[in-house]
Amino acid sequence: MAAERREFKVIGKPHRRIDGVAKVTGATKFADDLALPGMLYCKLVRSTVPHARITRIDVTRALAAPGVKAVLTGKDLPIPFGILPVSQDEHALCLDVVRFIGDPVVAIAATSEDAAFDAMDLVEIDYEPLPQIPDVDTAARTPEPRIHDYGDEGNIHKKVSLVFGDVDEGFREADTVRDDLFFYEGNTHLPMEQHAALAQFDGDGKLVIWSSTQTPHYLHRALAKVLAPLAASHIRVIATPNGGGFGGKSDPFNHEIVVCKLAMLTGKPVKVSLTREEVFYCHRGRHPVLMRIKTGVKKDGSITAMHFQSWLDGGAYGSYGVASTYYTGALQTVTYPVKRYRFDGARFFTNKPPCGPKRGHGTPQPRYALEVQMDKIAEDLGTNPADLRLRHLVPANSVTANWLRVGSMGLGRCIETVVAASGFREKWHKLPEGRGVGLACGSYISGAGLPIYWNAMPHSGVQLKCDRGGGVTVFCGSTEIGQGSDSVLAYVVAELLGIDPFDIRVVTADTDLTPVDLGSYSSRVTLMTGNAAIQAAERARELLAKGAAAKLAIPESRVGFANRRVFDVEDPSKGMTFAEAVVAAESQFGTIGTVGSYVPPPSPGKYRGAGVGPSPAYSYTAAVCEVEVDKDTGIIVVKKTWIAHDIGRSINPVLVEGQVEGSVYMGLGEALMEEMIYRGNRNVVHKFPSLLEYKSPTTLEMCDVETHLIEDPDPNGPFGAKEVGQGPLLPMPPAIANAVYDAVRVRVDEIPITPDKVLKALRAKDRRYGPTKTPTVTWPEPIVVPPPWEGGTGKAVSGEGAKPIVIGAGGVRK
Amino acid sequence: MMRLPKFTYVRAKSVREAVRVMADAGPDASFVAGGTDLYPNMKRRQQTPKTVIGLSGVRELRRIAGKPETGLVIGAGATLTEVCEHSKVRKGHPALAKAVSLISTPILRNMGTIGGNVLLDTRCNYYDQNYEWRKGIHFCMKKDGDVCWVAPSSSRCWAVQSSDAVPVLCAIGARVALASQSGEREIAAVDLFRDDGIDYLTKRPDELLTEIRLPATNGWRATYWKLRRRGSFDFPVLSVAARLWFDGATVKDAKIILGAVGSSPLDAHESARLLIGKPLTEDTIRAAADAAYKPAKPLDNTDFAYAFRKEMAKQYVARALRDLA
C-alpha cells in the first residue's frame, strides 16, 4: 500500500498550491464575484425582536415598490430543514414565530440591490412578544414558553448522560480529587468572505446554485427536501471556493433556499450577498459552555476517575447542537488515560443566533477546562506539568474508557519537542514576576467516523480520468475553503502516477460533476478524499501499467512511474512518456477512467451516543506559550508560542504549517478577546455585530510562532497523514491561561481572559476569577457502558442506550 | 453589501465655494473630506444628508505651514498620514504626531483628515450600528429614537468623544479657525466641544473648520496615551493628553485632558492642580493620577468594561506623567 512507500516525489514537499496563482492575482471567482444577465438581487427582512409570534405580515407596499419583482414569506417555503436529521427545526423564512433578532421573515427580489434595500422598509410585520430567554440560567428556569416544541424538556434541547465504569469507586481510589468550574464564552468564525449565493432556474426545470458553502452535498439534500416536488436530480449545487469557512458555512442556510425559490418563481437568476452583520446572525459558532470537571488522581498523577459536566447555550436553533453536546464530552479520554469516566451534558435553546461547529467543534471548551485543571493538579502535586502529562499518556493502538480506538499517538514527542524548544523546564516558575510560560495539549479527530445522516455509502468518492494527451482530471465533491484540499488531491494523484501536480486538473464541489464527498468539516478531507484518491489513482496505475508492460514486453510488476514517464524499473531508459502510456492503456481497455472511495473503519463503541468521537485517526498537539502580564492593567501580551503537531505525515509541510499558524492565531483571539455577547437587558440584541467592535487580533497582537511537525505515519491516513485544520487550536486557550498563572499566580477560569478579569483575580482572596455556580438540571438516567478493561463489549448494559438507535450524528453503525 | 442612501455630491474647489454651497443647501447638507467617518455612518443611516460637499479638491485646506517655534498651522484637509509623518509636526509636536499615528489603520489614515478627526461624530455602541439593528432597540435619542440606552433615565445623550487628536489639541492649547459666509472666527480647540453626545460641537452647521493653529513650542512638553483593545483599528476607549511646563525641576503649569470617557474632552483640573509647584516625582505623579479617577465617567457604551476604563484613568495618567518626568 501507498503508506509503506518510502521515497516520495511529491508527498512531503513544499509544492505551491494549485490554486495559488489564481488566489493571489484575484482571478479566483468567489460567490460574490458571480453575475448573470438579468440577475435580481435579494435582501432579507429580519426580525427586530428576539422572540415573538408573527401576527401580521403585509408585503403589499414592498411588492409595489419600484424594481421589486417578488416577495416571499414563510408560507412560500413551509417545509422545515436542518443539518441533523434529529433537528429539522429551521424554516427558510419564519412561519409563525421569530426566535432571535436577525431571524429572516421576508425575502425581496428586485432589479437592483438599492431597490431591494429600499423595499425592506415597506414590509409591515406585527409581532406579539413572547418572553425573552437570553441565557442558560433563564432557559433552565423557564420551561414555558418553549422556543421549540421539540427537545428533551422545556427549553433544554438535548440532555446526555454517559457512564463508563464505577466513577464513585474511582473517586474513592483517588488520593486527591479536584472539582473545578470553567466557562468558555461563545465566539464566531469571522471568515473574510461573507456568505453569498446565486441561483438560476432554467427553462428545462433545472436549478443551479453557486454558494459559499463548505457542504454542497448537505445543501443539495436540504434543497431537495424544501423545494419538493423539484427532484434532487434537477438540483445542482456548486460550492464556490470559500474565503474561509471554519465551520460557519457547514449548515444549509435560509438565504440559499430563498434565492433558489425566488429564481424558480421569477425565472431570473437571483443573488444574495450577506452583510457582515448578517454573517453574525448566521453564526453557528462556538457554543458558550459552562463546565464542571471533577477529577480524581493518585499521588503519581494517574487519573482514577473523571466526571465532566457541560451546559451549552445553543441559541435559537438545533444546527449541529446535538453533536456539539456529545463532543463536549467525547475527547477527554484520548490524551491521558481516564480509568472511569462520566459525562453529563445539556444544550439549551435561547433567543440568540444559533451556535454550531467552529474549528474544534465542541472540544476547545472541554479541552481548556481539562488542560487548566491538569495544571492545577500538577501544582497540587508539586510536579512539573510536562512530567505529569508525559508520565500518563494514552498508549498508541488502544481503546479508551468511552470506546474510542486510538491509532498512532505522538503526543509524547509533541510535549518533549515544545518543552525543549521553549526552555519550559528552565522557565516554568522561574521567570520574573509578570512573565510566565504555560503548557497545554490537545487532540482532534481526522474526520468523524459517521456521516451526518445515517447511510452505508462512502464518505468520499473520487473519479479520475486520464486523457490521451497525458492530462489527468480528478473529480471529487470536496470543497476548497482555503485549506488546500484541491491541492491535496493533485499531490496524491501526482505522486502515484509519477506526474507533476500542475499536470492535473481538479474539479471539485459540484453535485452534477463530482462524486459525493460529505464536505469540508470535521477535519475529514485530507484523510478521506486522500484515501479515495489513492484508490482511484492505484486503479488507473494498474491499467496504465498493463498497457505499458505489454508495449515494453516486461512483466507488469516491473513498471515504474516517475518524472512524467512510465518505464522499466530495471532499465529506466526503456520506457515511454506518461501520455504514451495512456494511449497504450486506452488502446487496450478503452477510455481510462477509474473511481475510488472511502468508508471509515467501524468504531468499537456500540452504545447510543457512540457515534460522536470515533475517527480513523487522532491528531495530537502540544503548545507552550510565553506571556507578559501587566499587574497594573491586567493586559496580557503573548510573546511567543512553540507548538508541535502530530500530523502523521505532511502531504505538504507548508500547508500544514499554515494551518497550524492559523489555529494559533484563532486560538489566541478566543483566549484573549473574542466574544459573541448580547444585551440581555436590551432585547437580547447582539452587542456589536461588526468587524470593528467584535474584537479579533490584528497582526500586531499575533505572537511569534515556532512550529514543529511530528511525523509518525498513521496506518489509516493517506501516506500516513492525519488532520491539522482544527487540532492545533485546542492547546492555545489553556496554554495562555496556564502561562498567566505562571506569570502572576492567578487563575482566570473563564475564556476570554480579559484585562479586567485578571485585575479582579489579582484582588480576589482565592486569586481566581471564574464561574461559581451551575444551573439545576435533572440529568437523564445514564447510559452505562463498562470500559474495555472491565469486561465491556462496547454496548450499554443499562439505560436507554441498551437499544441502539439512530440519532443523526450520534447514530450507531451495526 | 451595505448601500449608501442617495444624495447629491458637490465638489468644492475653494473654501469660499464650499461655504456658499453649504449656505445654499441648508441643514440637509454635510461637508465631507476623507469620508472615513461620514460614509460608513451614511450606510448605517445615522446621517442622511441630501447634499454632500466634497472638500478633497480644496487645495488651501491641505497646507501645513509655519514653524513650530512660532506656531505651526495645519490645514483641516491634511490627511492624517500627512500630519503624523510631517517632519515639523514630528519634531515640534511629537505628542500630536503620536496621537494621529495611532488613529485607525494606515489605509484609513491615508484617506481621513485631521479636520475630520477633530469633528469626529461621537461614538456609542448603541448608535454605531446599522438601521436594522437600531430598529431592534427602538432606536436611541441620538438618531430616530428618544432614549439614551446607556443611561435610560438620563435626559441627555452619552455618546463618547472618540478623537485621538482632540485631547492633545486641547491640552496644548491649540486654536481652530471656522469659516462661513459671514467670515472667519478663531476659537480655542477646547471651546469647540460641548458635553453632550448629540450637540457635541459649538461649531454652527454652516461653518467649515479650515485650520488648526498650534501654539508656539516654548518650553512645555506634552504626551499622549491611548487605551484600546488592539494596536490598530480601534478608537480610544480612554486617552490621556498631558502638557507640563517646568521651572527647573518644578512643575510650573499643567494641563491634563482625558479623552473617550465622556461626550467631550474632560479637563482633569484636580490632577493638574496637584502637580503645580511641585517636582514631578513618583509620589506627586501617583497623587495626580489618583485624582483622575473621579472626573473620568465612562459608561457601558464602548469596548471594555466601563469600571475597568475608569480605573485605567489612574494608570494612564501616571504613565503619561512618567513620560514627561
Summarize the structure.
The complex is a heterodimer of chains A (814) and B (325). Helices cover 26% and strands 24% of the residues of chain A.
Overview of the structural elements:
The complex is a heterodimer of chains A (814) and B (325). Chain A is of the alpha+beta class and 814 residues long. Helices cover 26% and strands 24% of the residues of chain A. Chain A folds into three domains: 34-130 and 192-244 and 249-282, Aldehyde Oxidoreductase, domain 3, CATH 3.90.1170.50; 289-450 and 605-769, Aldehyde oxidase/xanthine dehydrogenase, molybdopterin binding domain (Aldehyde Oxidoreductase, domain 4, 2-Layer Sandwich); 458-598, 2-Layer Sandwich (Aldehyde Oxidoreductase, domain 4). In chain A, the strands form nine sheets. Chain A has a seven-stranded mixed beta sheet with strand order 3-5-1-12-9-10-11, with helices on both faces. In chain A, a hairpin with a 2-residue loop joins strand 23 and strand 24 (571-577). The longest helix of chain A is centred in the middle third of the chain and has 28 residues, at 525-552. Chain B is an alpha+beta fold and 325 residues long. Among the domains of chain B are: 1-58, Uridine Diphospho-n-acetylenolpyruvylglucosamine Reductase, domain 2, CATH 3.30.43.10; 235-324, CO dehydrogenase flavoprotein, C-terminal domain (Enolase-like, domain 1). Chain B has a five-stranded antiparallel beta sheet. Chain B has a four-stranded antiparallel beta sheet with strand order 9-10-11-12, with helices on both faces. A three-stranded parallel beta sheet of chain B has the order 1-3-2, with helices on one face. Chain B is globular, with a radius of gyration of 20 Å. The chains are: A alpha+beta (814), B alpha+beta (325).
